[in-house]
Amino acid sequence: MDNTGSFAEAFSGLTGYTPFRWQQRLYGKLVAGCIPARCDLPTGLGKTSVIPIWLIALARGRANIPRRLVYVVNRRTVVDQATDEAVRLSERLSNPPPERKKVLDDLRQCLAALSGDDGNPLAVSTLRGELADNGDWKANPTRPAIVIGTVDMIGSKLLFQGYGDSRYWRPHHAGLIGQDTLIVHDEAHLTPAFGHLVREIASLQSQDQSHRPIRILELSATSPPGRPKGETVFSLEPQDEEDTTVRNRLHAKKWLTLHHDAADRTAVVQKLLELALGYRGKNCRVLVYVSSPDDAQTMHNALVKVGVPDKHVALLTGTLRGHERDKLVKTPIFAWFRGGQPMNETAYLVSTSAGEVGVDLDADHMVCDLSTLESMIQRLGRVNRKPDKAPNPEEKVADVDVVAEESVIKTDGKPAKGEPEALFKARQKTWEALSQLPLGSDGRRDASPLALRKIAAKPDAWSPPPVIPPLTDILLDAWALTSLSQSLPARPPVEDWLHGINEAEPPETYVAWRAELSPVVSALEKAGLAEEEIARVLADALEVFPIRAAERLRDRTYRVLDELAKIAARHSKAKALVIRDDVAVVRLADLARGDKKLRDRAYARLTNATVVLPSEVGGLKDGYLDGAADRAAQDVADVTEVTTQSQRARQRVWTNADGGEEPVCESKVQQGFVTRFRIRLRDDELAGEEGEGQRIALQYRIGPADAGERLGAAESQKPVRLKDHTPAVVEQAKRLAGLLHLPTAVVEAIELAAQWHDRGKARTLWQRAAGNSVVDEPLAKAGKHGVNWRALQGYRHELGSLLEAANDPAIREHPESDLILHLIAAHHGWARPHFEPNALDNSDAVSTQDNHHAIAEAMRRYARLQQRFGRWGLAWLEALLRCADGLASAHPEGEPKAPAPSQETRQ
């Protein structure tokens, strides 16, 4: 039964505008389960509307529509149109306008029936920007969710090697992204390696017993050459172009002039400056595109130097820190380029490729250097983008000037120093392609979207394709061994499989700053911890208080090394964190040594890694990495400007033995915030009384506590008894498995695993570590003081639970006994495939032989199940139990009442 009314009514209610004909056609395909492999649509026609189209199709109850939509954007994207779209959808569902209330309330009820929760039927999370992973998408696998992230963040998680993820989260994220998900790959032609990767994964999933294999939809405004044969392509039909808005955008007037009289790159920048200044006093928006951040900085400075006011010129490159990037996109100048209020003076936006992708810019005119063809098409899509918004669309005309070096037009021309020859030849072919555009009477060329589509399919003019290494079973198996944190010879970093190997794009490194880093490291050193132990403690801290996108900037690894050397010259004793496969404490001086061998080693270590610097060492200027900047860098880990769901606070540091307080930052401790992490220093690690002999080095507080169902985010600060917690987890497991309509035997397996998953906590050793002296009333949750993990001496309660469950006759005889036991063992990220040697259950009833037998069998069981369910299918089943535990912990008083699922809404 259709409770949402017509598609047009639902779409208009969600978005505020009437759908184009192509959007109605795409909805028809999705709701029928026919998801095309690719949508080939010109820029400016609203490709991100795929999100509300999917949402309406999902609400209409078709079982073949995935519950999660993962929208993958290019890492160069500075503004996420997808995030803006998703946030608007969520707001419309929560607060529908009066004239749309009925249709949106009906839509909301249909979505709520999928998860059984009317409180928040749609989760919206982004793995970059201000909404930095609020965790909603990973708390409840039955809830419809929109997840936006870069190729790096989504791809690494899909391959079980999530950047910044711990052992606990890696299989969880891989399972939830790799099952029951529609992966929408935006601007797919720019990241062909990722497209190849997800298609390979989809092919593998079709061969195993995955319950919810991924579906893939690639979006592109440019038809890329060399596509797979036989794929289904959704594109405009002649009737679609009858719409006035579509027709105006396809025929948008953009007149292009080619300039080739610049002797070198310096002359190119000078010519661009001259052309840009020709628009002064004309009250228009001028985009200036250049290929390198250095050229962009030079152009920006030159415009200011000749008298253009700072408020009328903005600089945008991919090396800008997230916090400053988010501030930039809210400025009046940037708002004008996105359709906001005019500034009554000519405004300039100087940009690199960061402003080519994923941002809805609409400039009046453009000047730029010569890039490759797909890049030029992206740039041209950001000028006169929506002529229909002008009073007289037919009279709206954009001037575009493209400047190239003389060598580009010469058959014997040579690339400049540092430019790969293949890239230079592609730019030469691009010049030839642009020279074939229709010529007007005044010598300018027609660069409208319609004209560009006729020259787009010229493979020699595109950026040289990366070398894509083969994806083998050995590699996938090695990456899926997530309980093994140490480096393995057969487990290389996943970067080359996400982006391919491309000499034109050198490796990059992320840099962030934290104010508490130095005092915390110092406190832990004074407590006698070795560097390896300090690294483990800080890794745990980063799990609950991770580095988010707003804190990071990105730059090429060789530049990061150069700038770190300048910082190390002032702060030779300073220590930083390097986060890659693990977390390591390193001395800046060790990263900045001039010896070639050591520098090569540091380069390899920092490639695709994140470096966290102490705030006091500086190295940040106007949001860009600058080793010469000696002023302390602003720590923005606590800064929140959009949503309370991402608020975090560091409370304070105690470093004095007498308990004297030294605040780390000026964060306000607000009502409803709960402490999620403490670093406690003890004079006697086995002190009996909780708090005795302790001083707290650091606390992280997350909140507000009721901001959603982030996994465990709102765990009770009071102790929870095992006999109360276990039934709550069983109930949640039963509810989730039922809503997902899993086979009966699998539902029973998840319920039984929930019933047994915490039995190992009843051991005296665990209860004492939890501060419970009443062993006859075992706790499942220790409450606000937490568990003294060092007192456990390595014991893992999952192993204790596994040993008990393996002896239960009902489990041994169950058809899914392997699955039950594995879910118990892997509940906290172990048993994929191993446990540490000190994880043994040394209680009187268990022998050492029993322990070793259980650990060995856990490895064999993992291999059997992964072969059966597939790598992502097994991880997804693990995630279901983990989510049930998290939901029970987040709602100790029970799940909010909500409508029950019906066959009408989910067939």
Protein model, in words:
- Helix content is 36%, strand content 15%.
- It contains 31 helices and 28 strands.
- A hairpin with a 3-residue loop joins strand 17 (575-579) and strand 18 (583-587).
- The protein is globular and about 95 Å long.
- The protein starts with 6 loop residues before the first helix and ends in a 17-residue tail after the last helix.
Number of strands: 28
| CA gyration radius, whole angstroms | 28 Å
Mean pLDDT: 86
Q: What structural class do helix, strand and pairing data support?
A: alpha/beta
Tell me which CATH architecture of the largest domain applies here. Answer: 3-Layer(aba) Sandwich
CATH class of the largest domain: Alpha Beta
The largest β sheet comes out as: 7 strands, parallel
The portion of residues assigned to helices is: 25-40%
Assess the beta-strand content as a share of residues: 5-15%
Task: Give the CA-based shape.
Answer: globular
Structure annotation, total helices: 31
Low-confidence stretches: 642-646, 655-659, 683-693, 705-715, 894-907
